[in-house]
Amino acid sequence: MKSERPSKDTTVHFDPHAGNLDNMNYLKEKYNLSLIRPFKGAIDNGGGSGYVYYYAEKDSARFFIKWGGAGNSLANEVHFTNLLYKENPNNFLQVMFEEHNEKKYVAFEFLKTPTLAELLAQHNLVNKQKIILQLEKIAHTLATCKVSHRDIRPDNLLVLPDGTLKLIDMQWAVPNSPYREINYVNEHPEQFAELGTTYAIAQYCWDDMYSIHKLIRELGGHSDYVYSLIGKFKIQYNVQRDIILLKEQIKQLQSDSQQMQTQSINKPLTLLNCWKQIKYPKWFILFLCWFIVKKKNRRKFKKKYSIRQ
Known about the structure:
This protein is of the alpha+beta class. It has ten helices and eleven strands.
């Protein structure tokens, strides 16, 4: 899954051929933007997210806009971003403006800053202990709000110049108590087999506390608090998927039953039609008939024998 930032470096790249002119004009007029441009490589198909990214300015403010999204992923991102920001504004992004009805987009403050992954690759992370303390705060916020991010990794953590950590990319977050899956994931489960697998327990099995603790260990630290939470918020998609498949099977059985009733009304109720509608193996039916007749004859024999006695 791609992170909030479509480009790995901190330079703003524009592509005049990317994006949609109508979308840009709509945003520019509605929010009185002085500038709006698509990013280079603006279309994000990573993980099926389907976002188009824009950079915008208004006075001294700068915005990073995500437009579109697969299924209800954008509405999902807005909901959980607002929820987590309200609980912990220091380590989560603020939604600047959004719409998820006919038009679907969300705008955040544009942060010209590297990700934790980039700093680790460059061996340029100065205060690891500060990062670890903030990861503990993020874990506490997720536990308090009962939210599973499902894709916690260095690429989805922005590091501001003052060392502040920001967890981003909430489009596939879900409530974990009780666990309720996103509709788009249910419809396209094959696209999410690799979601968060670098720091997850296994495919379709997520535990944010496990992911955060693994990241803390890679930074050379340890957190008793995060370690104590491992397993308490674990979710597994297969359980939810089995329930959905069971519901589909029940609907199919009901549909088959109605179809059989319709066929029996339209066709004469003959022995041949009944035989064709039986879905069990024919040898099993013949065996069952033989067994019933044999059992009936055995009862007659016992009754006759008892009278003679």
